[in-house]
Specification:
Elements lengths: L2 H30 L15 H7 L7 E3 L5 E3 L1 H5 L4
Antiparallel strand pairs: 1-2
């Protein structure tokens, strides 16, 4: 093998190594996205959730609009308490 040929293969080896690292990184990111969320919808969000539930002022996390799309229930959750 001549030095010119082995020198031409070096960029190919670097590209393969880079492609391997990118593939490993994307696989790790995809695997992390498959875990379950930290808080389930039935879990208490704050120490005040039980207080609100006892006083019948508990606001759900999400509401469904007319088209059936789920949205955060910000209006009820941020409204002043009675």
């Amino acid at each position: 093998m001549t030095p010119a040929r082995s020198h031409a293969r070096a960029p190919l080896a670097r590209r393969r190594a880079l492609a391997l690292w990118i593939t490993c990184g994307l696989t790790a990111i995809a695997a992390a996205g498959c875990e379950r969320p930290l808080l389930a919808p039935s879990d208490e969000r704050s120490p005040f959730d039980r207080y609100d539930a006892v006083r019948n002022q508990y606001a759900s996390q999400y509401i469904m609009d007319d088209r059936g799309v789920r949205h955060p229930n910000l209006r009820e959750r941020l409204a002043p308490k009675r």
